[in-house]
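Dissemination and training. As part of the outreach component of the grant, students in the summer workshop were shown how a complex can be specified as a set of sequence lines and then modelled as a single object. The example used during the hands-on session is reproduced here so that future cohorts can follow it. Participants entered these lines:
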Amino acid sequence: MSQSIRLRVARYRPDKDTEPGWQEYDVPLREEWTVLDGLNHVKNEVDTTLSFRWSCRMGICGSCGMNVGGEPRLTCATFLSDYAPGPVDVAPLSNFPVVRDLVVDITDFMEKLPRVKPWLIRDEEQPVDEGEYLQSPEELDAYKQFSMCINCMLCYAACPVYGLEPEFIGPAAIALAERYDLDSRDHGTRQRLDVLIEQEGVYGCTFVGECTRVCPKHVDPAAAIQRYKLKAAQESVKMFLLPRALRR
Amino acid sequence: MSTEDLRYHPRVPVLWWTRKPSYFVFVMRELSSLFIAWLVLYLLLFVRAVGRGDAAYADFLAWATSPWLVVLNAVAFAFLVLHTITWFSLTPQAMVIDLGGRRVPPAVIIGAQYAALAVVSVLVYWLVTR
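and obtained this result:
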């Protein structure tokens, strides 16, 4: 194995550049080094002007998502040795405006996420002295997979629909809506459906399936969206067929 | 700092669907709907010709064997196969079926669809050839 590997890193300095370009750096190729380790090496030893986001280094915070070799990946969980002998292309996540170098503007996602109310909604809150809302292991299993989402936005970078139609609320937001809908303690299905039944909600999705493929936590947003479409369609039929008094 | 937006707004390239095999297959699946619409129209024309009697049926057969139509129908059939395979393989993600408290495995859902397709195909074949 050679001793170093070349990183081709996308650079965009808004004060100097009108569009992104590439810059190459050679970093040590060590078996245990991830792409993020390579970038940190560049930042610490070679070029302090390089900008990128990271935090936990253990695939939990979701902040180090970038395009590595053209694929959206968590750079803290992507090993340099998998790309040997290189070079490895590192670019910011697709479909988001680039603030600087590898840093993207996630404002759009941050505005969309609360629209699906990803928190427990109760018809009536139970008094604190009555204790916790209990849940069986089966009830936990119903939503557990969708609760693994870490908001890393790799699914948005992989979704061509989001790239072409930025109004689309997107895979992670819908997967999180599904996570709370499937929670036995939650009563907010109706409120979320009102948001997701719109054109820019679930119907924006044409089932490319890339969101699921790139998800580092195996959340399967594509499944969540299709399940939601079924739910939305059933609701539409109900609205059409049932008299007002019988609707939920 | 000025209020001018200094962010770089990437554009989705026109040929984005050629970047990855999965994007390409997706766009082909979307495109297949046009060919499926054509095959439905072709079937309706066929039924109409049968209903109008022997002469119309003979005319339809003569038209149907013209080389360009054979090529078109062969392409349309290839798209139909693509549409069927990709659609069947996607259904387990949309359908969550629980039987006796256990989730039905994706392979069973996909297999059931192929089995249903085979049964319907045999039925149609029997109806046409009996």
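The two ends of chain A are 64 Å apart (CA to CA). Students were then asked to discuss how this feature might be tested experimentally.
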